[in-house]
Design goal:
Elements lengths: L3 E7 L5 H7 L4 H5 L3 E5 L12 E7 L2 E3 H13 E7 L1 H5 L11 H11 L15 E6 L9 E3 L6 H12 L15
Parallel strand pairs: 1-2, 1-3, 3-5, 5-7
Antiparallel strand pairs: 4-6
The chain binds iron/sulfur cluster.
């Protein structure tokens, strides 16, 4: 049996969902015979490859860079999993949505800056007007709520997917911590 080509992506999130992924601890070793990690912030691959079987997406879509990235990922991936409340609802990144981008940037880079008060326009990707959940831009195959989802839920999702089944998460996850 060929291994599942597996990826994880970190967009506008805090890395907590990836930490929960790592909290599977020794169960990660149980998965290794069945998956090939082809892209992730946890490994050193620079480009999102073609023909990915399963991707876990942490975080909301908040910038123009995120938007380009998620569309490219969708084209290259069979099963896309929205991992965690930020990916599913926009959650914490969405807290800025009641303010304008200009107000948010002014608060961050002018009012709260101790030195060098200026709004960056080169290195930082331009923000979208609102931070949005992944499914508002691309089709999502599996939603895994939680902030973060616990390691047991992530393990269940992955074991089902590597077995060729879509996981039924009824009663296994909840929003929030
Ligand atoms: S869902 Fe929670 S843990 Fe995951 S990226 Fe968002 S804030 Fe962090």
């Amino acid at each position: 049996m060929s291994k599942v080509r597996f990826a994880t992506v970190w967009m506008d999130g805090c890395s907590g969902c990836h930490m929960s992924f790592l909290d599977m601890d020794e169960r990660l070793l149980d998965l290794l015979p069945y998956i090939d990690v082809v892209y992730s912030p946890l490994v050193d691959h620079k480009e999102y490859p073609e023909n990915v079987d399963v991707v876990l997406i942490e975080g909301a879509v908040s910038s123009e860079e995120d938007l380009v990235k998620i569309r490219k990922i969708r084209q290259k991936t069979k099963i896309l999993v929205a991992l965690g409340d930020c990916a599913v609802t926009s959650n914490v990144p969405g807290m800025r949505n009641r303010f304008t981008v200009e107000a948010v940037e002014h608060r961050a880079y002018i009012e709260n800056a101790q030195t060098n008060q200026q709004i960056p326009n080169k290195v930082i990707p331009a923000l979208l007007e609102k931070s949005r959940p992944v499914h508002e831009f691309v089709k999502v195959d599996v939603f895994v709520p939680g902030c973060p989802p616990d390691a047991d839920a992530i393990y269940y999702v992955l074991t089902e997917l590597v077995s060729g089944r879509l996981p039924d998460l009824s009663g296994k996850t909840h929003f929030g911590a």
